[in-house]
Write a structure and sequence with these properties.
This protein is about 25% helix and about 25% strand. By secondary structure, it is α/β, with parallel strands linked by helices.
Amino acid sequence: MKKPIVSLTLAATLSIGAFGLQPAFAQSSEVGYHHVQDHFDKKLLKKIDAEKIYQNIDYLSKVPRVAGTDSEENAVHYIKEQFELYGYEVDIQPFTFYGYTPPTAIELSVVGQQGEYAPRAFTYSVSGNVTGELVDAGLGKQEDLQGRDLTGKIALVERGEISFSEKVLNAAEKGAVGVIIYNHSDGPLSGTLGEHNDDFVPAVALSKEEGEALSSELGNAVNITIEGAETGEKTSHNVIATKHPKNKTKATDDIIVVGSHHDSVAGAPGANDDASGTAMTLELARVLKNEQTDTEIRFITFGAEEVGLLGSSHYVETLSEDEIDHTVANFNLDMVGSKDAGDLVMLTLDGKPNLVTELAQKSSEKLNGEATPYGQGGRSDHVPFAEVGIPAALFIHSPSEPWYHTPEDTIDKISKEKLQDVAEIVGSAVYDRARVDYKGPKAKKGPKLKAKEEMFYEQEMK
């Protein structure tokens, strides 16, 4: 998932952390939907099989599925085959993007000394092998570098106040051949330079501890090696399986989208992020395939979420105005299975309830005795839907697991109990809205929203 880690504190209210979003979470809402699922089909629940979800996660998370790579394309073929196995006709929707291939190797060393550093590349770090005198460049701001000549040197920069790309470009403008940025708080540092720039020089990230240790080497020669990093046009795909209304005599023009993203970040097998959501989308497609419904349900796995919500944005951009008007709900499943994450929450782009949260709260209250809380959050594939006025919500556990976006996001960290719980909540909510005898409120098209800039960067707790 392309997002910072969510952090929630459950007290009289719930508050959200690293998203830096609105602090209030609601346990219930007053939109007016009071329809109780009196006729809820318990047979449907019994069909949901967490073991099947788990096995699909296991298959998908053997290797990272970086957007535009062969491993992502292999995942696309597998997902297509599974949908077809369940009886669906499947559409593969390709799209191109200007993408980044992460380095195959990255090293940082003090020349003539032995020492262990664990540098990370930023997204859009460029390849290179550079050696130069290590100099302190403060925060890398223009005022920090005013009057300084960094020609042939490597700048040691602390994180903070300006973007990573500005730090790199400011140092490069002064002649630096490389940049090392270290964290201002405990823990490793990872991030993005935003986009390709021909003026970038090789840049790596270090933890606070390593950066402070390296500062004792100021004046010594340091080497940075980055190999295999490339930027260029790439192709990713969305996979779309459509369940047409089973009861054609009572069919509506309404559309529900159940979605997830199938790509992962470099170096991370992505068992939870987001093979869990992808496998759950497959399972809900299997379970709902032959149910009597009067609403079209589109089960979609999106590509290139991790590099900017590109797949879901492309899908929404291809919709006609009529399709947008008749899409009544988007259920977005992202990171829904980690045993080490917190409780299930729903996030909407504006923090307000909508048809998705209403349906899911009713189903969770019916199943678990309490309604799943909702709050505000962006940075996942519900955003493009919300931006055109489609009721949408992200389903995620919070706080996130410690190994989010790391090589430790593996199958052994997945909870079958959590998979079952989320699948039952979402499956029953989708079925309740799609079934022929649905008597709840009609979906109201929401306002066209825009994800605010601050919703895409880490912020402090509020």
